[in-house]
Design a protein that fits this description.
83 residues; Alpha-Beta Plaits; 1 helix
Length: 83
């Protein structure tokens, strides 16, 4: 599988999965509003496109501001919801 990372503006966005401890509920706002969410056991999985490293940092800061624990995050294949 080719290695992919979020890149500068002008390039294609990268789909990321964020595994969160606990349950998040809809509606999501800010940088999370276009992400899908589902519950997996006692964790939530957010999946959505991130356009670049700055946006990725924004998502992580937003989650930190909500006081949730990010268990992991990684790029995922656009054809799947998680990995």
């Amino acid at each position: 599988m080719p290695r992919r990372h979020a890149t500068r503006a002008g390039r294609a966005a990268v789909r990321y999965a964020f595994r969160i401890r606990g349950t998040l509920r809809q509606p999501l706002v800010g940088p999370l509003e276009r992400m899908s969410i589902r519950t997996v056991g006692d964790e939530s999985l957010l999946v959505g496109e991130v356009r670049d490293q700055t946006a990725l940092q924004g998502v992580l800061r937003w989650l930190w501001g909500l006081g949730v624990e990010v268990v992991s995050f990684h790029p995922v294949d656009a054809r799947t919801n998680d990995r």
